[in-house]
Amino acid sequence: MPESPEVQALVDELETTLRGRTVAAVDVVEFRVTKTRSRPLTTLVGERVLAVTRHGKLFAVELDGSELLVVSLGRHGWARWGAGETDAAGGAADAADAAAHADAGEAAEPPPPTLAALEFDDGVVLELTDAGGWVSLGCWVVDEANEVAAVAKHGPDPADPAFTRAEFDRAVAGRRKQLKAILQEQESLAGIGNAYSDEILFAARLSPVVHAATLADDELARLFEATVGTIRDAIEARRGIPIDRLKAAKVEAMQVHGRAGEPCPGECGGEIRDFTFASTTAQYCPDCQTGGEILPLKAGETE
């Protein structure tokens, strides 16, 4: 699932490439991506892009007709360039990926299907894709971003330079809820998902399943610093990476997420383990985070 660091890098590239360009055509391949049926994506034809902004894990394309195209990437959505100058780099990257897989004797994964595409006046095409078995990508044409419920309910964003310790404490302190659940709750803190919540909790050396209400003052302070530091450092690290490389860059940068069975990157000498959380799999270091306790892989199971 795309999270704020990768979505911010996507937004930066879209802003640089699309600002000032005019929408020439819209092709909606999968009708379910359109969430505002009375305002279809085709109403954007003829409008010029003024800016592209991020709202948690969503982004918005601001157009000169006083409209916004708000896009939720959902669990498996992303964007790619389909034509024009920007396609040269993307095409070369795809070819390099295919060659690398061939050299390794692996079958290259087929590219995810395009569910909607916007063509601009100079031939550049922005394709919105979804790699999931069900449609998680969503698009809205609205006057203000807050008309989209997922944006309106957002809590404060730790990536925002104005984000404060007081806002963090209001979202977290004293709550009888597991830390990992709070970090992923968009109404509490915007932009964090499964991967970065794992990274934050490892950086803070805190158990993902402990309740926030049990944290001592120094632990809460540590969690605040880890949240802000992890997200902002990741945004800086992704800056300038082409959008077709962002997923790989995210995976490569993870210290514990997706690293089950590997040695802990800390100094404990332990091993990263999986555990089941909210119908998905997450990772942690028992020695660094849970005092050696092994969290369940699934109900009633610890090994």
Automatic annotation (TrEMBL):
Residues 255-290 form the FPG-type domain. It comes from the Bacteria. Keywords: DNA damage, DNA repair, DNA-binding, Glycosidase, Hydrolase, Lyase, Metal-binding, Multifunctional enzyme, Zinc, Zinc-finger. It holds the Pfam family Fapy_DNA_glyco. One of its GO terms (molecular function) is DNA-(apurinic or apyrimidinic site) endonuclease activity. GO terms for biological process: base-excision repair. InterPro entries: FPG_cat, FPG_N, H2TH_FPG, Ribosomal_uS13-like_H2TH, Znf_DNA_glyclase/AP_lyase. Residues 2-135 form the Formamidopyrimidine-DNA glycosylase catalytic domain. It catalyses: Hydrolysis of DNA containing ring-opened 7-methylguanine residues, releasing 2,6-diamino-4-hydroxy-5-(N-methyl)formamidopyrimidine. The keyword Zinc applies. The keyword Cell inner membrane does not apply. Belongs to the FPG family. This is Fpg/Nei family DNA glycosylase. It comes from Agromyces bracchium.
